[in-house]
Amino acid sequence: MSVAFVKEPNEDQVEGLPERDLGTDPNFVTKRGLEMLDAEIAKAEASLEEARTANDKIALAMINRDLRYWRARRSTAQLTVPQAGSEVVQFGDRVEIRRPNGKVQSYRIVGIDEADPEEGLISYLSPLARQLVGKEEGDTVRAGATEAEIVSIG
């Protein structure tokens, strides 16, 4: 039977995976973000060895693609530290905002790969981060469907 009719690739046939999108925006990272990139590379390298040992060509293709992505992200990473003593919101700052209902939320502005909104880590490219950067305590910003007041920067 021709391999054209086989649903799963055989050991000699691994479909080319599309590369992960690196984007075109600057790759700003916090110190934590840089450590996370290093950890992802180490994790992928360990997984690569396991896949080689198991002779798992599909896993090898996926891991190699991810490893190329993480290495590219690491090579373009620009460590960015907030300027001490600044009174305006900057990349890397933790910002607390107060919603009209009185609820206070805390966000830290971080790099793309480090973002985790559920943990309060928002990408510097997110709409909220774009509203916050350059603002001061007491300023009002658009935060979703409502406005919010910046109550602290740190």
Helix-strand blueprint:
Layout: E1 28-29, H1 31-54, H2 57-76, E2 78-79, E3 94-98, E4 104-110, E5 121-123, H3 127-132, E6 140-143, E7 146-153
Pfam family, one: GreA_GreB
GO molecular function: DNA binding; RNA polymerase binding; translation elongation factor activity
Region (Disordered): 1-24
Describe the model.
- With 154 residues, this protein is of the alpha/beta class.
- The chain folds into two domains: 55 residues, no CATH class; 60 residues, Chitinase A, domain 3 (Roll), CATH 3.10.50.30.
- Helix content is 32%, strand content 20%.
- The strands form two sheets. The chain has a five-stranded mixed beta sheet.
- It is elongated.
- The mean pLDDT is 90.
E-strand count: 7
Intertermini distance: 65 Å
Order of helices and strands: EHHEEEEHEE
Architecture (CATH level 2) name of the largest domain? Roll
Structural class: alpha/beta
| Count of individual domains | 2
Strand order of the largest sheet: 5-4-3-7-6
Keywords: Elongation factor, Protein biosynthesis
InterPro entries: GreA/GreB_C_sf, Tscrpt_elong_fac_GreA/B_C, Tscrpt_elong_fac_GreA/B_fam
GO molecular function, one term: DNA binding
Protein name: GreA/GreB family elongation factor
What is the structure about, briefly put?
With 154 residues, the chain is an alpha/beta fold.
Q: What are the defining features of this structure?
A:
elongated; 154 residues; two-stranded parallel sheet; five-stranded mixed beta sheet; 2 domains; 32% helix; 20% strand
